[in-house]
Prior knowledge:
Blueprint: E1 5-9, E2 12-21, H1 23-38, E3 43-54, H2 56-71, E4 75-79, H3 83-91, E5 99-101
Parallel strand pairs: 2-3, 3-4, 4-5
Antiparallel strand pairs: 1-2
Helix pairs in contact: 1-2
InterPro entries: STAS_dom (IPR002645), STAS_dom_sf (IPR036513)
Pfam family, one: STAS
Protein name: Anti-anti-sigma factor
Amino acid sequence: MKNQEFIIxxxxxxxxxxxxxxxxxxxxxxxxxxxxxxxxxxxxxxxxTKVNTINSTGxxxxxxxxxxxxxxxxxxxxxxxxxxxxxxxDRTRLSKAFTIxxxxxxxxxx
Length: 110
């Protein structure tokens, strides 16, 4: 899961994802996030600003994590939807199923 960043702040996990959210990458992110849920974390913020594309595997992974988080009394919010990623959420109407936040700018690491 090269270039994926997970930050824990209090009881929230922020995932800053990069690349094409599909296939093995989506499966790896799913496993990581399920590990956080198993460890007691149930609130997630997923930053998709640096995600180029997303397919049904990536969308399904996010739906699955949302379901698990809700079962534990938590939530998942998404930010940074743009371009083809935003179009995929709109086309599937998943933009109505998730909390979508305005994108907060963040500095790239040197």
